[in-house]
Amino acid sequence: MNTDYFDDQHFSKIDFTKTKINKGEYDSCTFTNCNFENIHASNIQFIECEFIDCNFSNTILKNTGFKDVSFINCKLIGVKFNEVNSFLLQFSFKDCQLNYASFYQLKMSNTKFINCNLEEVDFTETNLTNSTFDECNLKNIIFDKTNIEKTDFRTAVNLKIDPEENHIKGAKFSKENVFGLLSKYKIIIE
Questions:
Q1: Which of 30, 53, 129, 142 has its CA 20 to 30 A from that of 182?
Q2: Do the beta carbons of residue 155 and residue 175 sit within 8 Å?
Q3: HSE of 163, CA atoms in CB hemisphere, 13 A
Q4: Is the pLDDT reported for residue 185 higher than 70?
Q5: What pLDDT shows up at residue 1?
Q6: DSSP letter string over 122-146?
Q7: How far apart (Å, rounded) are the C-alpha atoms in residues 4 and 86?
Q8: CB within 8 A of 26, min separation 6: which ones?
């Protein structure tokens, strides 16, 4: 099977709903203002790539590899990251919309989420050890049997975590976040 190889290229303002993305390996490439919405971007490898101002909403990423990839100001609503190739998986998110995305059972320690909206994102059984949620909205986020040990939540808002159902040893919380840890007990804190 022939696959294409792209090295250190810049892709700008490409609408992949109209122009088919080439299967293959993209190494050190930058994608700016590209539209991947609702397409099949499966079985592609992205290595040390940057996605800036791109739309990935509802994109199918089955067996797609993300190795040291940055998403900046991207729309990634409803993306099932749990279907990606987990080998050497490493990515970061800054100023992104990730509502309704799923990271179910992924091993993604040391992941950085900076100023992201993560409403109703599923992190069930995900390993987020030593990750950072800096200035993120975590409204209705799902943490169930999730490993968030040593994860930094100090500047996150709308946090609600059940300490009995998740691994939280060494996680960092602000005083305001403590309410989200105790909410299941329906106690009054004044």
A1: 129
A2: no
A3: 14
A4: no
A5: 44
A6: B-TT-B-TT-EEES-B-TT-B-SS-
A7: 21
A8: 6, 9, 44, 45, 46, 47, 49
Determine the Cα angle at 142 with ends 127 and 181, to 5°.
Answer: 90
User: 3-class DSSP state for residue 185?
Assistant: helix
The CA distances from residue 126 to 72, 88, 104, 131, in Å, are: 22, 15, 6, 11
The full length of the chain comes to 190
Any idea what DSSP says for residue 95? S
Q: Max Cα separation, the chain?
A: 65
Residues paired with residue 144 on neighbouring β-strands, in sequence order: none
pLDDT of 98 over the 70 cut: yes
Which tens digit of pLDDT belongs to each residue from 42-83? 999 999 999 999 999 999 999 999 999 999 999 999 999 999
Q: Is the pTM of this model over 0.90?
A: yes
Which amino acid is located at 19 in the chain? T
Cβ within 8 Å of residue 188, ≥6 positions away:
none
CB 153 within 8 A of CB 177: yes
Q: Per-residue confidence at 189, pLDDT binned at 50, 70, 90?
A: low
Q: Sign of the CA dihedral 161, 184, 169, 189?
A: positive
Measure the CA–CA gap between 38 and 73, rounded to whole angstroms. 18
